[in-house]
Write a structure and sequence with these properties.
275 residues, alpha/beta, 5-stranded parallel β-sheet, 8 helices, 40% helix, globular
Length: 275
């Protein structure tokens, strides 16, 4: 019987956040093992193997050249989309994914259909959009979450655990009233101003939509229950504003938005036009 515990971090990017998270997870597992296995049992601490996953275009070279020298696990990279299978059946003990699941692998087709009520003309997101646009995003998120849960159900060992951290929203709150929604509205307005100045084409703006959906706790719970492969041990929302000290640092906010989205804007509009 194998004495190896296998952990997967899905959507790892290039570090260092993934390394900090894996260190915390391993320390928690080791502490639990020591507290439950008495010294006289002569049990040796299990070995750990961590699989770092992200899309094939992720910079895995940077990731692995940055691996902590004092890591207490064997590391491996697994490129590919987590909306499908990544690992053999019943091979993973714990799956962790943070700030990745709210990204959609593809946009709803209705957003580009001029004959559809969900055509998202003049906007880059479902923020401040008609209900038809919101519903299209919601439906796409539900499909992808179903695929994600089905794949993980195959890969996790019986009794395995999954931890998911993702951007969310309170039930019934218009996304335009959230800080992220206000940011997307401001970007949409800026792009339309650039179109009026002839810097970009109107068609370019109409054809661009951010592939991001922020589900409520109720939506997420409903999708997990509907899937039927997992039981929910704990679910909660957090308020990032509670962590802030002093006024918001606008420069830092812009840097975070740029780090997450610059590539998408540059590929669609051209780096010289929008950056």
């Amino acid at each position: 019987m194998s004495n190896t515990i296998r952990i997967a971090d899905l959507g790892c990017s290039t570090g260092p956040n993934t390394f900090v998270t894996m260190k915390n997870i391993l320390e928690g597992m080791q502490q639990k093992y020591r507290s439950q296995c008495a010294p006289e049992d002569h049990q040796t601490m299990p070995e750990f193997q961590v699989f770092f996953n992200d899309l094939v275009l992720n910079d895995f070279n940077t990731l692995f050249t940055s691996l902590p020298k004092d890591k207490q696990y064997f590391a491996a990279g697994v490129p590919g989309s987590f909306h499908g299978r990544l690992f053999p059946e019943s091979s993973i003990h714990l799956v962790h994914t943070s700030l990745s699941l709210h990204w959609l692998s593809k946009l709803p087709e209705e957003l580009q259909d001029k004959a559809s009520p969900a055509w998202n003309k003049g906007r880059i997101h479902y923020t401040s959009a008609p209900n038809e646009v919101v519903d299209a995003y919601m439906s796409q998120f539900a499909k992808e979450m179903e695929n994600f849960l089905d794949a993980r159900a195959e890969e996790l060992v019986p009794g395995g655990m999954m931890v998911m951290v993702l951007i969310g929203n309170h039930k019934g709150m218009p996304y335009s009233e959230t800080p992220s929604g206000m940011t997307y509205d401001a970007i949409s307005s800026s792009l339309m101003d650039m179109e009026k100045e002839g810097l970009i084409d109107e068609g370019q703006v109409d054809a661009f939509n951010l592939p991001l959906y922020a589900a409520s706790l109720e939506e997420l719970e409903g999708l997990v229950v509907k899937n039927g492969c997992f039981s929910i041990e704990r679910m909660e929302s957090s308020n990032p504003a509670a962590w802030l000290k002093g006024p918001v640092d606008i420069t830092q906010c812009v840097m975070h938005v740029r780090a997450a989205m610059e590539g998408m804007f540059a590929r669609h509009f051209g780096s010289h036009e929008v950056m």
